[in-house]
């Protein structure tokens, strides 16, 4: 069949989509900037590392092994492009950078499933750019990929499931955890139980992690607020307070901190391709409009964390669902029974994900309290004070207007790290509803690309 089906991302969502397509005789092309498949949860270690699946994935070892084995089994029927970064997209073309050769390429698609996952959601505090301070996701990547932890006296902070998962993984790896500073209240987590129980296995794991951390004597503080990191060349401690106390009431000496407030979907590629977006109240984020994983752009589908943060099981199901939509569009058979079973299970995981947003609520008071000296956009060194001044002195009241005035979100990360914080601060300072200040327009290159690519690009056009 002369119909190019392309999948962007070989995490759980992308692998599941590929499996469903191959089962019906489609030969998809799967792209990933990583050298190995697995995405975040099933991230694989480098070739010369020898940790077992149990050591790498803990409770998820069996499922990781099965998913990666199934992926291996379909390789003869897939064109897999690892080490390929998608740095731009327009019309029916993806612009790739092959990091190994290195070479610039273009890839045409007739149907495209974007399954490119999520990144940490960051709300900065004063001093957070000091060496020794990481996101929770980065701290986990250090462990999963390189088998190392981020320091010898570690504070983990923020909220979300990754906070406790990482704490448990670090504990098992023998790390010295000085404290877990949880933004949420213990009651938030209890009150969300009914919704969370739509994914009982995941709840059980969470309770187990908490019990083990408490048994090991790890200090866990609820309702904790980060004030400022101390340090000159490197972080040496963190000032914090509990909700209701005055700022910097407490101090913990440490040589490393990992923090984050849940995850945010990667949506820049659907944005470049012209998808319509809407503001999702529960996820507190702008997301592409979807109808059965199909975006408003014909032939373009989303799956996994990139379509809303609902975890690995939802990622696999939505990958399969997106693949089924493509099969239907090509008049290939899709079992109705299987489709309705997928919808039913996806419904449970969506309810579960809404439970997570209650258990680990978004820090809505952050914007009111962030100090003027706090760097918000680290690529362009724009502080909270700069943003406040731009709003009040120049009248900026929309994300792109603000960006044009003070360069917030204009740097290498293209807003991936800072846009949540800029968005919150702008809405607060303009006294507008959170969905009334717009969102940063995506620009290529989505991630930094070496100058060689630009030279090659220039050669191709002259
Ligand atoms: C840092 C981090 C760690 C996490 N750890 C866990 C965990 O241990 N346990 C858990 O249950 N959940 C974890 N999660 C949540 C996790 O993302 C989901 O459970 C699951 O992995 C989502 O699957 P996915 O296929 O949607 O996305 P992912 O697994 O994130 O896969 C997306 C893939 O797309 C690729 N990609 C992204 N952008 C591009 C691009 N521009 N060009 C080329 N390739 C690209 C990535 O390299 C990646 O392989 C983590 C999330 C993050 C951000």
Outline, from the CA principal axes? globular
How many strand units?
Answer: 22
Query: Number of helical runs?
Result: 16
**Rg of Cα set:** 22 Å
CATH class of the largest domain: Alpha Beta
CATH architecture of the largest domain: 3-Layer(bba) Sandwich
CATH third-level topology of the largest domain: FAD/NAD(P)-binding domain
> How confident overall, as mean pLDDT?
95
Biggest sheet features: 5 strands, parallel
Structural class based on helices, strands and sheet pairing: alpha/beta
CATH homologous superfamily (4th level) name of the largest domain? FAD/NAD(P)-binding domain
Bound molecules: flavin-adenine dinucleotide
Query: How are the strands of the largest sheet arranged?
Result: 3-2-1-7-20
What percentage of amino acids are in beta strands? 15-25%
Low-confidence stretches: none
Give the fraction of residues assigned to helices: 25-40%
Domain BFD-like [2Fe-2S]-binding: 375-427
Domain FAD/NAD(P)-binding: 4-315
Protein name: NAD(P)-binding protein
InterPro entries: BFD-like_2Fe2S-bd_dom, BFD-like_2Fe2S-bd_dom_sf, FAD/NAD-bd_sf, FAD/NAD-binding_dom, Metab_Enz_Cyan_OpOx_G3PDH, Opine_Oxase_asu/HCN_bsu
What does this 3D model show about the protein?
The protein has 462 residues and is α/β, with parallel strands linked by helices. The protein contains 16 helices and 22 strands. The chain folds into three domains: 5-118 and 265-332, 3-Layer(bba) Sandwich (FAD/NAD(P)-binding domain); 122-261, FAD/NAD(P)-binding domain (3-Layer(bba) Sandwich); 366-436, Arc Repressor Mutant, subunit A (Orthogonal Bundle), CATH 1.10.10. The protein is globular and about 65 Å long. The longest helix is centred in the C-terminal third of the chain and has 24 residues, at 336-359. The protein starts with a strand and ends with a helix. The structure holds flavin-adenine dinucleotide. The site of flavin-adenine dinucleotide has 35 residues, from helix 1, strand 4, strand 8, helix 4 and helix 5.
């Amino acid at each position: 069949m002369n119909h190019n089906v392309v999948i962007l991302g070989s995490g759980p969502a992308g692998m599941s989509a590929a499996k469903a397509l191959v089962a019906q005789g489609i030969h998809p092309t799967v792209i990933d900037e990583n050298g190995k498949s697995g995405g975040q949860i099933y991230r694989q270690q480098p070739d010369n590392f020898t940790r077992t699946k149990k050591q790498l994935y803990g409770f998820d070892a069996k499922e990781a092994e099965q998913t990666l084995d199934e992926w291996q089994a379909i390789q003869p029927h897939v064109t897999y492009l690892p080490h390929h970064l998608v740095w731009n997209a327009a019309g029916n073309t993806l612009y790739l950078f092959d990091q190994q050769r290195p070479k610039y390429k273009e890839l045409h698609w007739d149907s495209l499933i974007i399954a490119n996952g999520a990144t940490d959601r960051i709300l900065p505090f004063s001093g957070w750019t000091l060496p020794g301070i990481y996101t929770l996701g980065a701290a986990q990547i250090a462990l999963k990929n390189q088998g190392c932890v981020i320091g010898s006296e570690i504070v983990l902070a923020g909220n979300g499931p990754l906070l406790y998962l990482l704490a448990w993984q670090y504990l098992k790896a023998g790390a010295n955890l000085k404290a877990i500073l949880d933004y949420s209240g213990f009651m938030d987590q209890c009150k969300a139980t009914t919704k969370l129980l739509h994914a009982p296995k995941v709840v059980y794991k969470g309770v187990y992690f908490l019990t083990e951390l408490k048994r090991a004597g790890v200090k866990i503080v609820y309702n904790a607020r980060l004030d400022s990191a101390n340090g000159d060349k490197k972080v040496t401690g963190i000032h914090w307070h509990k909700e209701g106390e005055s700022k910097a009431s407490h101090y913990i000496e440490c040589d490393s901190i990992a923090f984050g407030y849940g995850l945010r979907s990667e949506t820049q590629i659907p944005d470049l391709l012209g998808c319509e977006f809407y503001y999702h109240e529960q996820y507190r984020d702008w997301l592409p409009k979807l109808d059965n994983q199909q975006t408003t752009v014909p032939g373009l589908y989303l799956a996994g964390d990139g379509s809303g943060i609902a975890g690995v099981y939802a990622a696999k199901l939505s990958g399969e669902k997106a693949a089924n939509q493509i099969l239907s569009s090509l008049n290939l058979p899709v079992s109705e029974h299987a489709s309705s079973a997928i919808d039913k299970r996806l419904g449970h995981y969506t309810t579960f994900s809404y439970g997570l947003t209650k258990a680990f609520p978004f820090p809505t008071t952050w914007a009111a309290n962030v100090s003027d000296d706090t760097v918000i956009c680290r690529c362009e060194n724009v502080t909270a004070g700069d943003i406040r001044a731009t709003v009040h002195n120049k009248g900026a009241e929309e994300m792109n207007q603000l960006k044009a005035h003070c360069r917030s979100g204009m740097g290498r990360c293209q807003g991936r790290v800072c846009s949540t914080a800029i968005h919150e601060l702008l809405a607060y300072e303009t006294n507008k509803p959170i969905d009334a200040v717009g969102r940063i327009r995506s620009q290529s290159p989505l991630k930094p690309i070496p100058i060689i690519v630009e030279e090659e690009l220039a050669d191709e056009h002259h």
